[in-house]
Specification:
- The chain has 198 residues and is mainly alpha-helical.
- Helix content is 70%, strand content 0%.
- It is built from 12 helices and no strands.
- It has helices spanning 5-13, 15-22, 25-30, 37-59, 63-67, 77-86, 91-95, 109-122, 126-137, 146-149, 152-173, 178-197.
- The longest helix has 23 residues, at 37-59.
- It is globular, with a radius of gyration of 17 Å.
Protein backbone atom coordinates (compact mmCIF):
# COMPACT_ATOMS: atom_id res chain seq x y z
CA UNK A 1 0.00 0.00 0.00
CA UNK A 2 1.29 3.44 -0.91
CA UNK A 3 2.32 5.82 1.85
CA UNK A 4 -0.69 7.77 3.18
CA UNK A 5 -3.18 5.61 1.22
CA UNK A 6 -4.33 3.91 4.41
CA UNK A 7 -4.54 7.23 6.25
CA UNK A 8 -6.92 8.45 3.56
CA UNK A 9 -8.97 5.28 3.82
CA UNK A 10 -9.31 5.32 7.61
CA UNK A 11 -10.27 8.99 7.56
CA UNK A 12 -13.06 8.29 5.07
CA UNK A 13 -14.32 5.20 6.83
CA UNK A 14 -14.45 6.82 10.28
CA UNK A 15 -15.90 10.10 9.05
CA UNK A 16 -19.50 9.31 10.02
CA UNK A 17 -18.55 8.26 13.56
CA UNK A 18 -16.29 11.31 13.88
CA UNK A 19 -19.05 13.68 12.81
CA UNK A 20 -21.52 11.99 15.13
CA UNK A 21 -19.39 12.56 18.22
CA UNK A 22 -18.88 16.21 17.25
CA UNK A 23 -22.68 16.62 17.37
CA UNK A 24 -22.86 15.25 20.92
CA UNK A 25 -24.33 17.85 23.30
CA UNK A 26 -21.19 18.19 25.43
CA UNK A 27 -18.73 18.34 22.55
CA UNK A 28 -20.98 20.69 20.57
CA UNK A 29 -21.25 22.94 23.63
CA UNK A 30 -17.48 23.07 23.81
CA UNK A 31 -17.22 25.09 20.61
CA UNK A 32 -20.22 27.29 21.37
CA UNK A 33 -20.37 30.56 23.24
CA UNK A 34 -22.99 29.02 25.54
CA UNK A 35 -20.52 26.64 27.21
CA UNK A 36 -20.89 26.72 30.99
CA UNK A 37 -18.05 26.05 33.38
CA UNK A 38 -20.01 23.12 34.89
CA UNK A 39 -20.43 21.58 31.43
CA UNK A 40 -16.73 21.91 30.76
CA UNK A 41 -15.91 20.18 34.05
CA UNK A 42 -18.38 17.38 33.21
CA UNK A 43 -16.77 16.93 29.80
CA UNK A 44 -13.31 16.62 31.35
CA UNK A 45 -14.65 14.13 33.91
CA UNK A 46 -16.13 12.03 31.11
CA UNK A 47 -12.87 12.10 29.14
CA UNK A 48 -10.87 11.13 32.22
CA UNK A 49 -13.05 8.19 33.19
CA UNK A 50 -12.85 6.90 29.60
CA UNK A 51 -9.15 7.46 28.93
CA UNK A 52 -7.80 6.32 32.30
CA UNK A 53 -8.58 2.58 32.06
CA UNK A 54 -7.60 2.57 28.38
CA UNK A 55 -4.23 4.15 29.09
CA UNK A 56 -3.59 1.78 31.96
CA UNK A 57 -4.14 -1.05 29.50
CA UNK A 58 -1.80 0.53 26.93
CA UNK A 59 1.09 0.85 29.36
CA UNK A 60 1.32 -2.92 29.79
CA UNK A 61 1.73 -3.63 26.07
CA UNK A 62 5.12 -4.87 24.82
CA UNK A 63 4.39 -3.25 21.45
CA UNK A 64 5.97 0.08 22.42
CA UNK A 65 9.39 -1.31 23.24
CA UNK A 66 9.54 -3.22 19.97
CA UNK A 67 8.61 -0.09 18.03
CA UNK A 68 10.76 2.28 20.15
CA UNK A 69 7.66 4.44 20.59
CA UNK A 70 7.30 6.51 23.78
CA UNK A 71 3.66 5.99 24.76
CA UNK A 72 4.08 7.61 28.18
CA UNK A 73 4.56 11.11 26.80
CA UNK A 74 1.28 10.70 24.92
CA UNK A 75 -0.86 9.93 27.98
CA UNK A 76 -3.79 12.32 28.27
CA UNK A 77 -4.96 11.56 31.79
CA UNK A 78 -2.22 13.56 33.61
CA UNK A 79 -3.29 16.64 31.64
CA UNK A 80 -6.98 16.11 32.39
CA UNK A 81 -6.28 15.60 36.09
CA UNK A 82 -4.21 18.78 36.11
CA UNK A 83 -7.14 20.69 34.60
CA UNK A 84 -9.67 19.19 37.01
CA UNK A 85 -7.46 19.98 40.00
CA UNK A 86 -7.21 23.57 38.80
CA UNK A 87 -11.00 23.66 38.46
CA UNK A 88 -11.42 22.58 42.08
CA UNK A 89 -11.87 18.81 41.96
CA UNK A 90 -10.08 16.88 44.67
CA UNK A 91 -8.25 13.62 44.10
CA UNK A 92 -10.90 11.73 46.07
CA UNK A 93 -13.67 13.19 43.89
CA UNK A 94 -11.77 12.25 40.75
CA UNK A 95 -11.42 8.64 41.96
CA UNK A 96 -15.22 8.43 42.34
CA UNK A 97 -15.99 9.32 38.73
CA UNK A 98 -18.50 7.12 36.93
CA UNK A 99 -16.89 4.38 34.87
CA UNK A 100 -17.90 3.83 31.23
CA UNK A 101 -20.31 0.98 30.55
CA UNK A 102 -18.01 -0.42 27.86
CA UNK A 103 -14.47 0.33 26.73
CA UNK A 104 -12.65 -0.30 23.44
CA UNK A 105 -10.97 -3.66 23.10
CA UNK A 106 -7.19 -3.18 23.24
CA UNK A 107 -5.94 -6.76 23.24
CA UNK A 108 -4.44 -6.74 19.76
CA UNK A 109 -1.95 -4.32 18.24
CA UNK A 110 -4.37 -3.43 15.45
CA UNK A 111 -6.99 -2.45 18.03
CA UNK A 112 -4.45 -0.26 19.78
CA UNK A 113 -3.64 1.44 16.48
CA UNK A 114 -7.31 2.18 15.89
CA UNK A 115 -7.79 3.58 19.38
CA UNK A 116 -4.72 5.78 19.09
CA UNK A 117 -5.85 7.06 15.70
CA UNK A 118 -8.88 8.57 17.43
CA UNK A 119 -7.03 9.87 20.48
CA UNK A 120 -4.03 11.29 18.66
CA UNK A 121 -6.20 12.73 15.90
CA UNK A 122 -8.25 14.61 18.49
CA UNK A 123 -5.20 16.65 19.47
CA UNK A 124 -5.20 18.35 16.06
CA UNK A 125 -8.16 20.55 16.90
CA UNK A 126 -7.01 21.07 20.47
CA UNK A 127 -5.14 24.29 19.80
CA UNK A 128 -8.31 25.91 18.41
CA UNK A 129 -10.38 24.66 21.33
CA UNK A 130 -7.72 25.83 23.76
CA UNK A 131 -7.88 29.37 22.38
CA UNK A 132 -11.68 29.24 22.57
CA UNK A 133 -11.49 28.23 26.24
CA UNK A 134 -9.03 31.03 26.86
CA UNK A 135 -11.46 33.53 25.36
CA UNK A 136 -14.38 32.15 27.37
CA UNK A 137 -12.77 31.52 30.76
CA UNK A 138 -9.20 32.73 30.61
CA UNK A 139 -7.85 29.16 30.71
CA UNK A 140 -4.33 28.51 29.40
CA UNK A 141 -2.14 25.54 28.54
CA UNK A 142 -0.91 25.64 32.15
CA UNK A 143 -4.19 26.35 33.91
CA UNK A 144 -7.53 24.84 32.91
CA UNK A 145 -6.89 23.83 29.28
CA UNK A 146 -3.75 21.65 29.44
CA UNK A 147 -5.63 18.71 27.94
CA UNK A 148 -6.73 20.59 24.85
CA UNK A 149 -3.38 22.25 24.26
CA UNK A 150 -1.82 18.78 24.75
CA UNK A 151 1.57 18.79 23.00
CA UNK A 152 1.69 22.52 22.38
CA UNK A 153 1.77 24.35 19.07
CA UNK A 154 5.48 23.66 18.48
CA UNK A 155 5.26 19.89 19.00
CA UNK A 156 1.79 19.07 17.69
CA UNK A 157 2.81 18.47 14.07
CA UNK A 158 5.84 16.44 15.09
CA UNK A 159 3.77 14.21 17.38
CA UNK A 160 1.06 13.65 14.78
CA UNK A 161 3.53 12.77 12.02
CA UNK A 162 5.30 10.41 14.39
CA UNK A 163 2.07 8.57 15.04
CA UNK A 164 1.20 8.54 11.33
CA UNK A 165 4.55 6.90 10.62
CA UNK A 166 3.91 4.30 13.31
CA UNK A 167 0.48 3.52 11.87
CA UNK A 168 1.67 3.34 8.28
CA UNK A 169 4.61 1.12 9.20
CA UNK A 170 2.24 -1.18 11.06
CA UNK A 171 -0.09 -1.44 8.05
CA UNK A 172 2.83 -2.04 5.71
CA UNK A 173 3.95 -4.93 7.91
CA UNK A 174 0.45 -6.30 8.52
CA UNK A 175 -1.82 -5.29 5.63
CA UNK A 176 -4.33 -7.96 6.66
CA UNK A 177 -5.03 -5.90 9.82
CA UNK A 178 -6.39 -2.85 7.97
CA UNK A 179 -10.04 -3.58 8.65
CA UNK A 180 -9.44 -4.34 12.33
CA UNK A 181 -7.67 -0.97 12.79
CA UNK A 182 -10.61 0.82 11.18
CA UNK A 183 -13.16 -1.17 13.17
CA UNK A 184 -11.31 -0.31 16.37
CA UNK A 185 -11.27 3.40 15.53
CA UNK A 186 -15.02 3.35 14.84
CA UNK A 187 -15.62 1.41 18.05
CA UNK A 188 -13.62 4.00 20.01
CA UNK A 189 -15.62 6.87 18.53
CA UNK A 190 -18.89 5.04 19.22
CA UNK A 191 -18.13 4.06 22.83
CA UNK A 192 -16.74 7.47 23.73
CA UNK A 193 -19.83 9.13 22.25
CA UNK A 194 -22.07 6.79 24.25
CA UNK A 195 -20.14 7.57 27.44
CA UNK A 196 -20.40 11.31 26.87
CA UNK A 197 -24.17 10.90 26.47
CA UNK A 198 -24.61 8.81 29.60
Amino acid sequence: MKKSEFLHRIKLQTQTAHQHIEQNYLTASLVAERLKRTEYILLLEKFLSFYLPCEQELLYQEFWQKEAFDIEKRLKTPLIIKDLNFLGLSESKIKQLEKPGELPELRQNAQIMGYLYVVEGSTLGGQILGRHLQNLFGFTDKHGAAFFYSYGKENLGIMWRSFQNLLENFINQFPEEENLVIDSANQTFHLLDRHLCS
